Amino acid sequence: MKLLAKYNRVTIPITIATLLISSIAFYFILHYVLVHQLDKDLLIEKQEILHHISETGTLPEVSNYKDQQINFTLSKGQVLKNKFSTQNEYDKSEDEEETFRRLDFPVTVKGNTYIATVRKSQQETEDIVRLILMITFSVIAFLLLIIFIANRLLLGKLWQPFNNTIEQLKQFNLLGKNEIELHKTNVDEFTDLNSAAFLMTQKVNADYELLKSFTENASHEIQTPLAIIKTKLELLSQSENLSEPQINAIQSLNAATTRLSKLNQSLLLLTKIENRQFVTTEQVNISAILLSYLDNFEELAETKNISIKKNIGKDLLVEMNESLAEILISNLIINAIKHNHKEGSIEIGIEGNALSISNTGNVPTNGTSEYFERFKKDSASNDSLGLGLSIVKKICETYGFLVSYKYESERHIVSVQFTG
Amino acid sequence: MKILIIEDEKELSASIADYLSSQDYTCDVADDFAGAIDKTEYNNYDCILLDISLPGGSGLKILERLKEDKKTDGVLIISAKNSLDDKIQGLNLGADDYLSKPFHLSELNARIAAIIRRKNFEGNNLIEFQNLIIDTQSKTVTVNKNLVELTKKEYELLLYFISNKKRLISKDAIAEHLWGNDMSGNFDFIYTHIKNLRKKLMDAGDADYIKSVYGMGYKFTNQ
What we know:
The complex is a heterodimer. Chain A is an alpha+beta fold.
């Protein structure tokens, strides 16, 4: 829920309730004041009647106007003081209820006590109150509308620095746009937000640089001692008269060193791909790379009597980093040769923008989806690190290519869909 | 043949010098930037092995100096930074080849031999060993003047053996040389290649120089 909606959800009911309650109060107060005014008028009328009686000693004339009626009835002794009341009466001529305010009071003329009744129409008062209420309600409705629209416009404008900052953070990318441009604002909260965002991106950039140089340096530092071990072993193996246990030891050391070095290089490669350090892209001819690598590995396949069937149609051009394209292709071909058996076969085809490589080989023992995970391998081929396909996958992920593996009619099939 | 090894890891430069000396190279060693500049200014080498990260300055600077002075020494960069930028930059600056650490000494030796061969191109491009002759220009091999038909990989393998003659070459080094890093550790593949090469050389004229050394690898020798 938007902040504005949340804010409105609280403020609008409160505003409406407040306005409603005050309108009701206003109605009663107004009503009271106006009726009170009417009562005053009635009292003035009473004074005039009393005055008339004391002057002339007779009752004034009974009058019956639309807005004021005066009447006298002989008292039966019940009313002794002023009595205000409101009464409704049906008015035939106007076909509506009419409200009157009346004042009953005793007067004495020539020893007779009368009850004088002065009645004034209260209708106008009611009309005024109603009108005023209507105006009040329209003002309230108008006010609410204005508040609503103003909130929309004003808050939209007020939040603009915030939205800008969010947009900048969304676009923030360690490898592309690694700096954010924040607009100056005179709102303290947003200034705080901006400086926090700025500090955060600075820190992220610094950490990223640190991580990058750490991986590079770590690999460097590991490769050098490995180089020393490897060369010393090679020199050691040159010596004459080595005993069989010594030879075996040297061999194991050699194998372990090679493994460690390959592991280091592969993990470094994966890290570099993940960090998107292969930034330069160009039009790469996948078909041409495929053919040149096939040429290179043809003899290798022949040693196992593996037949290779090629079905490479038109040139497949893909926008990507050339080194990564080469790593991708060579990993796929080597995989197909390594995990093949004697007298097996490999089929390679390019169709549209899809490359598929299928090969014969051992029936997979584990679930097939695991092949793309690091260090997952079929136990038969112990010399592989199980990193080949995860490198393939990582390269494909970088460019949004779809890579899939399946085992179908006794063949391992890896296909890559070069999209875009 | 004179080689300069510019490498700050003394243990590594000692191993390299040890191996290369056995292949009849004379080796000089420099272990920092200043020493390297000194040696390259007053001497000419057939090949310089250049480490990029050195105490006192970048190896690439040394390469720049060499090119400014119009020196024709062959340069092979040996770097632990397996970074593409260094490789491209080094080759653009005029280095002849690039080898990343760790490497096999036999591979290093073969690369040096290839650089020296290219440098002396106008001269002799024949490599002879007993009754075997390799013409590196036409890429042909003869034994007792009989032409031996070799596949591409067999030719590469023979050249690799000849560059490291009389030294033990591990199967791993062979696999890596022929198919690159990814195939090292796969020894059953090289066995067929060696068998075929040996047979072809034998058939052409009793040139049985490839000796299998138990548990270790192979040696190319006439003994």
